[in-house]
Amino acid sequence: MKKVTLPLLAIATLLLTVACQEKTKNDISEKAIITENQAQNIEKPVESILTAEEQANMTPQEIIGRLKKGNENFMNNNLTRRDHSAQRRKAMIGQFPKAIVLSCVDSRVPVEDVFDLGIGDIFVARVAGNIENQDIVGSMEFATAVAGSKVVIVMGHTACGAVKSTIDKVDARAMNMNSLADLMEEIQPAVEETTTDGEISSKNTEFTNTVITNNAMRTVKNIREASPTMAAMEDKGDIIIISAVYDMESGKVSFNKD
């Protein structure tokens, strides 16, 4: 076997080095192209907010459809990117939300995120157990009759502490929490109208979830009775008043037929 001479070995080494350098350049160039394409595919943050014209042109049914689509985005961890600074500045001119949502105060129910919404998209009212009172109904009248919102949603949620405490007959008055006791009394009718073959206890998840649904639906009924203005608007088809339940495990919002 012939030995490779030193000059030939040096040439071979040089050629191999050049080839490796060229491959590295090609790899870097290819990665740069991929990165540039990825950057182009990333949507720019939304800067706009809902306008009066857009609000006026949407029907209540269309708004509910959009809320359902937004909820799908939330469940799929695909929330819209928003430029909140730009939206905040534009919102100074005025607001034209498409809906008002009455939700529980529970910190695990991020209403705007649940529907993939941003600044100026919806009004949000919150109270433990998502029950109505005069102030909240008045706020809803402002949202609909004055500000033009076309959907009123009462949104309960699974594992609601206020509902569970009411089911379990927690004695808030004995703990010197009379206001909480008054609130629980507002939820009690939903407990009483819910039947079960099992235990009447918050440990009975099926029963508890049914009470949560019934409580939200009962609140819708109470809102219609408390506000002839909104009831008349709904009769004319100008607005929809509807209840829903947010499942904290799945993130899904299920709308009820009230």
Task: Provide a compact summary of the structure.
With 258 residues, the protein is of the alpha/beta class. It is 52% helix and 10% strand.
Question: What this model shows, in words?
Answer:
- With 258 residues, this protein is an alpha/beta fold.
- The chain is built from 10 helices and 5 strands.
- It has helices at 6-41, 52-57, 60-75, 84-91, 111-114, 134-146, 161-167, 178-192, 205-226, 228-235; strands at residues 99-103, 122-126, 151-157, 240-246, 253-255.
- A 5-stranded mixed β-sheet has the order 2-1-3-4-5, sandwiched between helices.
- Helix 7 packs across helix 8 and helix 8 (178-192) crosses helix 9 (205-226).
- The longest helix is centred in the N-terminal third of the chain and has 36 residues, at 6-41.
- The protein is globular, with a radius of gyration of 29 Å.
Give the strand order of the largest sheet, numbering strands 1, 2, ... along the chain: 2-1-3-4-5
Q: Stretches where pLDDT falls below 50 for ≥5 residues?
A: none
**What's the total number of strands?**
5
CA radius of gyration is 29 Å
Q: What is the succession of H and E elements? A: HHHHEHEHEHHHHEE
Largest sheet: 5 strands, mixed
- Residue-averaged pLDDT: 89
* Total number of helices: 10
Q: Termini, distance in Å?
A: 93 Å
Q: Looking at the structure, what is the overall shape?
A: globular
Strand content: 5-15%
Give the helix/strand class.
alpha/beta
Helix percent band: 40-55%
How is the topology of this model organized?
Layout: H1 6-41, H2 52-57, H3 60-75, H4 84-91, E1 99-103, H5 111-114, E2 122-126, H6 134-146, E3 151-157, H7 161-167, H8 178-192, H9 205-226, H10 228-235, E4 240-246, E5 253-255
Helix pairs in contact: 7-8, 8-9
